[in-house]
Amino acid sequence: MRSIRKSALLILFSLASTGAWSQEDLLGLLGEEKPKKQFIKAAFKSSRVINAHSIEFLNAGTMDFRILHRFGNIDQGLKNFFGLDQASMRMGFDFGLRPNLMVGIGRSTFKKEVDGFIKYAPIRQSKGPGSAPVTVALVAGMTADGLPWADPNRENYFTSRLAYYFSAIIGRKFSEAFTLQVSPTVVHKNLVQLQTDANDIMGVGVGGRLKLNKRMALTWDYTQVFNGLPDGYQNPLSVGLDIETGGHVFQLHVSNSAGMNERAFITETTGQWGKGEIRAGFNLSRMFQLKKKKS
Amino acid sequence: MKKCFSLLLLLVLVGTVSAQRYFTKNGTISFDATASGSPENITADNRTVTCVIDAATGGIQFKAAMKAFTFERALMQEHFNENYVESDKYPDALFKGTISNLSSINLSQDGSYPANVKGKLTMHGVEKEVETTGKITVAKGKVTATASFAALLSDYKIDVPKLVSDKVSKTAKITVNCGLEPLK
């Protein structure tokens, strides 16, 4: 009796499964896929907003060759072709080591300065299980002035050429089009011009982008400096347009700053937007794949 | 004895059920959208394609996550997802179709059978009728489905900007290769 019931049950079961034949959604038979954690990418088109580091990282195994130009003040008029006659530049190489780790070096013509940095994101914005709402990236960098000593008669130390910067960037890609980040930053200069000048300069950067279409975005990059800016120095504000074309990203912008590393643009910006002391500039980024991806 | 019989019955029943459908979760779909004369290859592979074939009805369905397409160049992959197929908005490519010449395919016998497949391919939010002749190979009980066809990118509203038209072709040659197992 029991076995009859059992077999009846079994037949019923088999019938039930045969009933599924007529089902349209064959893929549904495999069951629901487990949701996976996905990191949010392309919050910015480049690893820099304009001057400041962005929450975006290079892909692992790629190199970004960056050529930056900052021209003279636009208000010089036709005489200096709106500043384009004067150019200061920085050439740099950035390397993506891990999806959340990159390093870079560069050299600027201004002060013949070499700079290097390491950028790491302990938290990356993601969706799915175990996701994080923001990316937190930490940057540590160093700059080394290459000019001859201002006063060769006194005892000069190599360390006097150095400055350091540390930045924590907290940012979020709010939507496909809009990204915003805030970056408390401190710049430490080993040697300053005047005894009264501060060695540690603290500020908070606010950077963002608004995508205009698939390949163009409006960007802005501002740093509010809280202490240590000598008289006559300004907070840097840049407004730009990112244009992406295959392997290149062009970041065209206008800014009151000529600096191309943290020490320079945070602590040595002299232009005043209100007086029209702004200059044109661009960052050109060309991406190279150094390591073939495993497929 | 009765118990044995019902068990046998179950085995037979389950056996026939499982023989009716085949599936994989790691099939391969590759595409090549390299324009002729391009210095770079615009190719990508997806090795986590889901496919189910119902041998009783001829139903055949594929699903490929767009983000699972891997390129040689990471930047290309990023642009593919962000600018071309907009993976966040349209995460999957789906194909739902039927094998029309089912009667000439015998999955329980080794051999290579041409399979006329017709159905709807949904990609980048656009559904489009697709027809191609693929091949179903049965070897030692293993069923493999292969096919290749061309998709006109503009049919799926995937824009190729002029600037890269010397690299990215207007059509993508799509190749499908799925080794299938009986679905239990």
Question: Could you describe the 3D structure shown?
Answer:
The complex is a heterodimer of chains A (295) and B (184). Helix content of chain A is 8%, strand content 46%. With 295 residues, chain A is mainly β. Chain A has a single domain, classed as Beta Barrel (Porin). In chain A, the strands form 2 sheets. A 12-stranded antiparallel β-barrel of chain A has the order 2-3-4-5-7-8-9-10-11-12-13-14. The radius of gyration of chain A is 27 Å and the shape is elongated. The N and C termini of chain A lie far apart (58 Å). About 3% of the residues of chain A have low confidence. By secondary structure, chain B is an alpha+beta fold. Chain B has one domain: Lipocalin. Chain B contains 2 helices and 9 strands, in the order αββββαβββββ. Chain B has an 8-stranded antiparallel beta barrel. About 3% of the residues of chain B have low confidence. The chains are: A mainly beta (295), B alpha+beta (184). The interface between A and B is large, with 39 and 47 residues.
